[in-house]
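Please produce the structure of this protein holding oxa(dethia)-CoA.
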Amino acid sequence: MTRRAVALGVGHYLPERVVENAWFEDFLDTSDEWIRTRSGIERRHFAAEGETTSDLALRAAQAALDDAGLTADDIDCILVATSTPDLTFPSVGTMVQSRLGMTRGFAFDVQAVCAGFVYALCNANALIVAGQAERVLVIGAETFSRIMDWEDRSTCVLFGDGAGALILGAETGRGTKEDRGILATDLNSDGRYRDMLFVDGGVSTTGTAGKLRMQGNQLFRQAVEKLTSTAETSLEKAGILGSEVDWIVPHQANIRIIQGTARKMGVPMNRVILTVQDHGNTSAASIPLALSVGVAEERIKRGDIVLSEAIGGGLAWGSVVLRW
Ligand code: UT7
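Below is the modeled complex.
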């Protein structure tokens, strides 16, 4: 008998304001054509003035609770993956906890930038397997529009705001790859790559939030290689072949990275959930957003093998294999 962290419900929330690529043409030397062909992005959502990461996280959490048929009383732990918290502290997790009316259990944030949701899932899995929690609400929520340099065409056209949430619950499996739930995880980071993607401000340096800086083409090359490698490691740990993967639900940074990784793994694009065209890069929110869309569209079904992989600032990267 093996304790498994099994998906109980999923949900998402996107801010109302949708911004098409053409919007940037008014104030930047860029084009819809460049953005589409280089990144696959067509539009993204931006949070309204005053709308915060915890607002988005709360809406996604409520959607996931509804989907699971649970209330906040059923949750032991909230884990929020974000690099754009409302405040330096307290955590977005504790803000969501209080707004859900949850007065027991515990909540905290995980900061691994675009790999944040994969890191949070691994932590949630560990908490459940160790018997520390029975049901964990895992949220990825970001307002990257707040850390954009609107004069830097190489970054500000790529990112968007949003939130997704997944509830994991403890179930007993047989310890085989036929079990539902998380079957394997793999986490990596290498701080030598910090200059490839970072924010140029912070509490103990400038005292400001700062703006995102990225060496996009260098990161691109690292991304395909490292994502393929972590995906292969997770699949090997799970004893699953690439041909057995029903859905890749990748971090949605760039369609060319997604295509390159899928090609290297021998998984056709009709088995990849793609949301980058509608959401842009929402950092830690992109995987739970894509999961939620894939389930809502009745593509991801109970029993399917799902592989998620992500890379971001740090660099930090990793992957998760689960049976839905
Ligand atoms: O989520 C975290 C992980 N993030 C990623 O994985 C992002 C990885 N990188 C990428 O997705 C791609 O590298 C980008 C989409 C950021 C850029 O695509 P690229 O094919 O690597 O383009 P590039 O950076 O090599 O730039 C090519 C040209 C440059 O002009 P020159 O030097 O060739 O004259 C840029 O200045 O495109 C120019 N450029 C633009 N042109 C029009 C850069 N941004 C823009 C723009 N509009 N918005």
